[in-house]
Amino acid sequence: MSRPATPRPGLRDVAPYHSPQLDVVARLNTNECPYPLPDGFVEELTARVRATSLNRYPDGQMTELREALAASVGHPVEGAWAANGANEIITELLLAYGGPGRRAVVFEPTYLLHSRLSWLTRTEVVSLRLASPWILASHDVAAAVDAGPDVVFVCSPNNPTGNAQPVEVVAALAADTDALVIVDEAYVEFGGRTSLPLIADHPNVVVVRTLSKAFALAGARIGYALAAPEVVEDLERVRLPYHLSALSQAAGIAALHHAPAAKGILDRIRAERDRIVRELRAMSGLTVHDSDANFVLFVPERPAATVWSELLERGVLVRDLSAVVPNALRVTAGTEHEVDLFLKSLEEVLSG
Ligand code: PMP
Question: Buried b / exposed e across 240-268, counting CB within 10 Å, b at 16+?
Fold first, then answer.
């Protein structure tokens, strides 16, 4: 009989990343797109899958997908890269630019995975805290530079607060450091300006995006990076062989061919997001934050955990983010029907 193996120090202190996937009427906790892409997408995807030889490894260079991604944003293909979600892109960036003896700066409150993946890749994390409304200023840039980073994360629009960061401040950060500045733009299509034009003058900037949100493709797991060509060459050095399956590549290409349909969906989601902000501001007992994303952060006067469970009793699942922003809840802009149910339920819960 042997004993169970011992994992790396600290591993058992890490809570597995987990967001409830409950079967409720309104699942508004993970910032997914509530609408699928149209039938034409499914037909194209089916035809592409039929034409795929799954006995063969996929195109390791992801040529067609990278060309489609690059063309969709007007960026050179040599500077475009794809992986299994923005999370894998970030992991690859940290494998290449972080690691033992190297340091990453994160501006909190922000997306948990930036520090989690830094830890996973043995990159030291320096957390700098922003105060509400969480807008990056020049003194934050100075503090980040002082920390002596190899990587700096900027999340814009930021999850979970919803605000976008000023591009001129990101530019100042990129100019003041040789660190890799990772601008996580998972929600950029919903609002806020992009840092993409900075790459031309600042090859230490990489923009990370995803097809999971605005492109309604969370199930296919496709994220991408837009960067200087040498960053992409470094990613090729760390990625696993053939990391993006032929099925994922096919789904990404087909989705990009249906970009106009995705844009139509985007308008509806933005309208619902704005309606949530308006209606919540008309309720008493709440603080509501502006949003450039497809979700809204709000802070009830009642305990967030109570509001969360009373919403769930009414079939509405939101995200309790009180561990990140005191007593805060985050709601994703869903369909009109889902938002109606959320608003009606919240009103009941707050008056209860
Ligand atoms: N960045 C941010 C800010 C996110 O909120 C998310 C998803 N919740 C991701 C990256 C990961 O996206 P993907 O599904 O492409 O891995």
Answer: eeebbbbbbbbbbbbbbbbeebbeebbee
Which residue, judged by its Cα, is nearest atom 4 of ligand 1? 186
- Residue 330, SS3 per DSSP: strand
pTM for this entry: 0.97
**Which residue has a Cα nearest atom 1 of ligand 1?**
186
Three-class DSSP category at 352: coil
Q: Which of 17, 90, 213 to mutate to test the pocket of ligand 1 (most atoms within 8 A of CB)?
A: 213
- How confident is the model over 13-31, as pLDDT tens digits? 999 988 888 899 999 999 9
CB 82 within 8 A of CB 224: yes
> The dihedral of CA 74, 77, 78, 83: what is its sign?
positive
Per-residue pLDDT tens over the stretch 38-84:
999 999 999 999 999 999 999 999 999 999 999 999 999 999 999 99
Q: Is the CB of residue 301 less than 8 Å from the CB of residue 284?
A: no
| Cβ atoms of 79 and 231 closer than 8 Å | yes
| Alpha-carbon torsion (149, 151, 154, 160), positive or negative | negative
The distance of Cα 158 from the centroid of its chain, to the nearest Å, equals 8
204 vs 79: CA distance, rounded Å: 12
The CB density around residue 191, as the number of other CB atoms within 10 Å, is 18
Give the pLDDT score at 17.
86
